[in-house]
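Here is the promised in-class demo. Please do not try to memorize the tokens; focus on the logic of going from shape to residues.
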């Protein structure tokens, strides 16, 4: 299975658990809205942080970017999709915090998997190879060739 699909699956599971735990318990939100919030949060986080920021920076910067992005995504989607009297900002902050706790482990898994994929890559030469023959391997040429060391006439 491809590493990217594993990471998306893990991120989706973590996001679903956190969103269902916080927004589902405290806000009694609709299950379809929670699924949409989970999928969008995991997707945005994967494509922005794991595919763009993590390869260019280190694990700490990617985790901080994950926290900020998860908070913004959860706050915006929560305010639009979850109908409640209470503000969603505090719940978004807690959910982003719990998501950010799991991200360093996921980033380490991504970096380790990419390193193993790089190690397993093999160089495959192109199709423009030619066979090369040296004249010394031809038996007739060896018999006809005059070697000054062999043909000493002293």
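The designed amino acids, position by position:
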């Amino acid at each position: 299975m491809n590493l990217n699909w594993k990471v998306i699956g893990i991120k989706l599971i973590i996001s679903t658990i956190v969103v269902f735990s916080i927004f589902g318990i405290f806000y009694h939100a609709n299950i379809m809205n929670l699924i949409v919030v989970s999928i969008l949060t995991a997707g945005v986080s994967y494509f922005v942080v794991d595919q763009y920021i993590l390869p260019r920076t280190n694990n700490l910067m990617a985790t901080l970017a994950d926290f900020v992005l998860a908070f913004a995504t959860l706050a915006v989607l929560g305010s639009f999709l979850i109908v409640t009297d209470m503000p969603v900002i505090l719940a978004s902050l807690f959910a982003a915090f719990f998501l950010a706790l799991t991200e360093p482990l996921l980033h380490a898994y991504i970096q380790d998997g990419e390193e193993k994929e790089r190690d397993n890559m093999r160089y495959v030469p192109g199709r423009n190879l030619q066979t090369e023959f040296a004249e010394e391997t031809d038996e007739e040429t060896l018999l006809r060739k005059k070697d000054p060391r062999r043909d000493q006439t002293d």
